[in-house]
Amino acid sequence: MPRSLVTGNGNLLVGLDSKNMLRDLYYPHVGMENHIAYQHLHRVGVHVDDRFSWLYEDSWKHEVGYLSDTLVTDSKASHEELGLTFHFNDFVYPTENVFIRKITIENHYDTDRSLKLFFNQDLHLYGDKQQDTAFYEPKPGAMIHYRKKRYFWFSGCSTEACGLDSFTTGKSEYQGKEGTWKDAEDGELQENGIEQGSVDSTVQINAHVKANEKAVVYFWICAGQKMGEVRRQHDFIMTETPEKLLKNTINYWESWVNKDPEKIASIPSDIQKHYKQSLLIMRTQIDNRGAIIASTDLDIMKFNKDTYTYMWPRDGAWVSLALDRSGYSEISKRFYEFCAETVTQEGYLLPKYNADRSVGSSWHPSFKDGRRQLPIQEDETGLVLYGLYQHFQSFGDIEFLQEMYMPLIRGMGNFLVDFRDKKTGLPLPSYDLWERERGISAYTCSTVYAGLMAAAYLSKILGHSNHHKRYEKAAFEVRESTLKYLYDEDKNRFLKRLTVDEKTGELIKDPIIDASMHALWIFGILPPDDDRIFDTNQAIFKALSVNTEVGGLTRYENDEYQQVKDDYSSVPGNPWIITTLWHAQWLMAVADDLEGLKPVEKYLQWTINHMNNAGVLPEQLNPFNGDHLSVAPLTWSHATFIETVLKYNERLEELS
């Protein structure tokens, strides 16, 4: 179940599902240590009129969303038979690692009613369930879970009083025990004050609601590395009051997302609205130490026992380009600092990293078919250089550029020059954009060219003329070799990639049509209106369009990744947000007048139509019904939408 809502502050991230249940609790890094493990949730239940119900049951109808221009949720859950509606405003405070739920309870009966709300904590500290302790703290009435340097404090308030009204701790996932949430279903908790090992807890907050009126309950989680830290955060909430913190959070995000309204002044208001929500959602997936996480949605675990909770330098570079274009240079700057610290001595970046700057898991071998090979995706190195160039072009931070010279500009530039075939001038084989196939791809050649041109320009700015000339010469050679070897005269289009026959050294053509060939014009190998680009992009559109009611473009012909059980005989694969918007960007680039921009707005509306109610975008869609597939949110999807909107605004102004 891809995530429906996310809220966070770069240290603490909370993910919620379509039934308003907590599914993810990341701390102290975005993307690392999800303390609610895969396929687990924190339950919320209610006992009223001698009846009990969990809010995830089918008898509840849920709606999810955000308050406009914020990362504060605006969701609800309604139960017709119980005569109750719960309105949720959930948020993580921007400067403190606390998550607060404001639950406004609406009583639809003509009688006063007393409710018991139950909150279950099924924590897996450090990602597993062992050696944990859960205990009740009577003053001021809180439940604490801890292990080593991870502390989580749970408490709350009702209109009548603050603190917990009842509690219990117990075993779960141990000797067949389900957890203390079962204890809540009779409306009474046993009040066991402490448990250790494989534990969970459930707490109770009472509320009284008058006939046809409303009452408010607050529930919060404080996250820290010491007991004193979470106690201080609790005291902070009590002193400031949850309602004041809610208003502060709303004001902060409204100011954050509206810092430069002129950037989108010319586009329709509904696109502006979703642009801003995309910016906010994208921000939740970025750790404050510079890691831009691909996605914090843990449900992808079911496919290969791994996740998207890593920083791919490629994704990070694309997202940084969107951040810089939208004016958030302070975030992208931290990304380049992250890359400067993690780049290898040889000058290349590895496929992916954890948020704490350690190396992530990989499936690229260093030894295959009896030969040693470099287990990289070279575009990740070239793209970071290109992104740094664009960052400097936008903000002109010469001192920051000087800091980046040795690790990124010189180190990466030298690698890109040297990691080439001496005979052809092309980059040596590496894994492609989609991490599937090894070879010499048009996409990688384009990013290497862009990276070398960036290194040349930035070296010149800093006065390193010899390196400027070296990188520029290599860039021109890569461009000419790309045009020579990857353009197929017989097909009148570019090729996805070349492979090398290990025995003869012969270059073997791969005829598969791939959307990543858009990189040829995006990174300047040729202008977008060149006949060779035009023919290539027409071939992409024809071969990769998903001709169902869902629409969009897939990645490449016969893409099998994440296929659902249905008839794909006439469908090339699942439509991706990124590849569909690349086509829109090309249409925009070759448009001569406002009439030529009309299809672009249709693609932007297509993207909006495939967001969920909260504005979340997935990686890809079910081609038959439009359901979100793989992960959601995918940070790169949101970045591509943001960049497309900004380019659209610029083109509207140019052509007007």
3D structure, described in words:
The chain has 656 residues and is of the alpha+beta class. The protein has three domains: 44-256, Beta-galactosidase, Chain A, domain 5 (Distorted Sandwich), CATH 2.70.98.10; 260-288 and 545-656, no CATH class; 328-542, Glycosyltransferase (Alpha/alpha barrel), CATH 1.50.10. Helix content is 34%, strand content 22%. The protein is built from 15 helices and 28 strands. The strands form seven sheets. Strands 7-8-9-10-18-14-13-12-16 form a nine-stranded antiparallel beta sheet. A five-stranded antiparallel beta sheet has the order 6-5-11-17-15, with no helix packed on it. Strands 1-2-3-4 form a four-stranded antiparallel beta sheet, covered by helices on one side. Strand 5 (44-48) and strand 6 form a beta hairpin. Helix 5 (313-326) runs parallel beside helix 7 (379-395) and helix 6 (329-342) runs antiparallel to helix 7. The mean pLDDT is 96.
Mean pLDDT: 96
> What CATH architecture of the largest domain would you give?
Alpha/alpha barrel
CATH topology group of the largest domain: Glycosyltransferase
Helix content: 25-40%
Helix count from the secondary structure assignment: 15
Shape: elongated
Q: Mind summarizing the main beta sheet? A: 9 strands, antiparallel
- How many domain units? 3
Query: What class do helices, strands and sheet pairing give?
Result: alpha+beta
Cα distance, first to last residue? Answer: 44 Å
Strand content: 15-25%
Instruction: Tell me the number of strands.
Output: 28
Q: Over all CA atoms, what is the radius of gyration?
A: 27 Å
Cross-sheet strand order for the largest sheet: 7-8-9-10-18-14-13-12-16
- Flag low-confidence runs: none
CATH C-level name of the largest domain? Mainly Alpha
